Amino acid sequence: MQRRPETLRSHRWFGTETLRAFGHRSRLLQIGYDRADFAGKPVVGIVNTWSDANPCHVHLRTRADEVKRGVWQGGGFPLELPAMSLSESLMKPTTMLYRNFLAMETEELIRSQPIDGVVLLGGCDKTIPALLMGAISAGVPAIVVPAGPMLRGNWRGEPLGSGTDAWKYWDEKRAGTITDEDWHDIEGGIARSFGTCMTMGTAATMMSMVEALGFMLPGASSIPAADSAHARMATAAGRRIVDMVAERLTPDRVLSAASVDNAIVAHAGLGGSTNAVIHLVALARRAGIPLAIDRFDEIARRVPVIADVRPSGRLLMEDFFYAGGMRAFLARLSEHLDLSCTTVTGATLGDDIAGARVWKDDVIRRLDDPVSPEGGIAVLRGNIAPDGAVIKPTAAEPRLLRHRGTVLAFESYDAMAAAVDREDLDVTPDTVLVLKNAGPHGGPGMPEWGMLPIPLKLVRAGVRDMVRISDARMSGTSYGACILHVAPEAFVGGPLALVRTGDTIDLDVRARRLHLDVSDDELAKRRAAWRPPQPRFERGYGAIFAQHVSQANDGCDFDVLAGPPLPEPEIH
Predict the structure, then answer these.
(1) Which of 118, 157, 364, 131 is nearest to 245 (CA)?
(2) 122 and 73, same structural domain?
């Protein structure tokens, strides 16, 4: 199927006999293109988040060329558009501060350029949601090429998982059970190739959910970055986007309340990252689809965790791929999915997964033999989290899912870091650690500080988990009884700001309850005495972020970016 050239968005740039179009065409000739390369063809933008400073994305420079090959094969004209790369490894204070920046950049790259369809190249945690948020708002046909997980790590013949095993062995080093030499060997063996974390961290979770949402070619999300199939997938995506332009397969035809539910079902079955809650809320609301965080809880109660992948399980994404990958995983969950949803293939999700089989039942488990009978997320509420908080029960020690303890509260990350290794710290295994002022405004940007370190004296005594509460996020590769995303955050006067050392907190995950045992009168006194902190930023993007960012339960998007795409402006 081909669209008539005059119906293409890019026709307004290149297809008319005007002085403006003359200038546009002459500049492409300046690059060295021939008129036959672009005349009357759909223009495909390739938004590439490659960067030398992003180890997860270093292969995307090559993948962009492979996408271009597919676009040429399909009869389109590719233009690569570099965009900000959000590297979890190196960016400070947190990539979450810049997710909305990349979303805006993506939207404006598409809107301001002669783009008829777009291929989105990314994978590291915030990149996939940011790219897709921008593309949804721009409203042109869009397909995602995920960076893919790296190969599994290795140390002394045992597999290592990025993030998850870093936290694990760091505590062993702190406890003195491994040496500095051991630690350096682990450092050299935990990341063996380009690609994203190969645990079910935020990167793997978001890539998988976006496939379930319908924005990737079937099976694309689980292909290891270093596998030759990954390059072939990139080229196939380039061919497919040309057809999507002809079919006018825009994001609004893929994204629906039902497809959002499919993504949440996938999240539950994967035991996915807590960060996905924030990102999917933002994605859905970009399309005008209302989504409350409670929907994750509702679906998790009926969908079991069947992916035996760390941190909720034992294995890694390479194992998941060999077991059948995302198509087989979705096929096994099919009774919980709406298989009629349209995907970027132009067919339905049911068509995309038809015939897929699981090859290893110990990796992608049967529904009657799950890793956990319920999905890996729970939404808690109570007097310190009236707008909600989240926990990943499958990654916590079961004994802590019903817990009552005395609070040790920290007003800031720096205060916590300065105290946690003190031998005289007044703390026991039953203490509830509370970190404040680490949310969207307080962090700033809601850093991944929610997996508070276990105090050193307890680590040396063998403690490896305890209840920790914050308005921060944590890495999807993290684990533990960590209660996150408390909303509203402390920095803006949420009830978490009123918690004090010596208070008692009662947690009951089964009842979805998080309660501070302090009287309403006492909380009112504390409220009267509370004073808002000084803003973190006085200028620049940080100041814009603070003026417009929403709370965690609303997706941390900017208020000026929410809602469906605007009509296309006139081009002169």
Answers:
(1) 118
(2) yes
- The answer to whether the beta carbons of residues 545 and 477 sit under 8 Å apart is no
Question: Is 491 in a helix, a strand, or coil?
Answer: helix
Q: Which two tokens stand for residue 563?
A: 């809602």
Listed residue (539, 542, 541) closest to 441, CA to CA? 542
Name the burial class of residue 303, with classes exposed (0-12), middle (13-18) and buried (19+) by CB atoms within 10 angstroms of its CB. buried
In sequence order, the 6+-apart residues with CB closer than 8 A to the CB of 172 are 178
Burial classification of residue 329, based on how many CB atoms lie within 10 Å of its CB (0-12 exposed, 13-18 middle, 19 or more buried): buried
- The pLDDT tens digits for 80-108 are 999 999 999 999 999 999 999 999 999 99
Cα(81)–Cα(376) distance, rounded to whole angstroms?
37
Q: How far apart are CA 369 and CA 346, in angstroms?
A: 34
If you count them, how many residues does the chain have? 572
Cβ neighbors of 23 (< 8 A, separation 6 or more) are none
Task: State the pTM of this model.
Answer: 0.96
Full domain range(s) for residue 177: 154-189
C-alpha–C-alpha distance, residues 363 and 543, integer Å: 46
Number of structural domains in the chain: 4
Indicate the pairing of strand 504-508 with strand 402-410. antiparallel
Residue 558 lies in a domain: no
Residue 103 phi, psi dihedral angles, 5° rounding: -60, -45
Give the model confidence (pLDDT) of 272-316 as tens digits: 999 999 999 999 999 999 999 999 999 999 999 999 999 999 999
Terminal CA-to-CA distance of the chain, rounded, Å? 29
Pairing of strands 482-483, 468-470: parallel
Q: Is residue 361 part of a domain?
A: no
416 and 281 both lie in a single domain: no
Q: Which of 501, 552, 553 is nearest to 526 (CA)?
A: 501
Q: From the CB of residue 526, how many other CB atoms can be counted at a distance below 10 Å?
A: 15
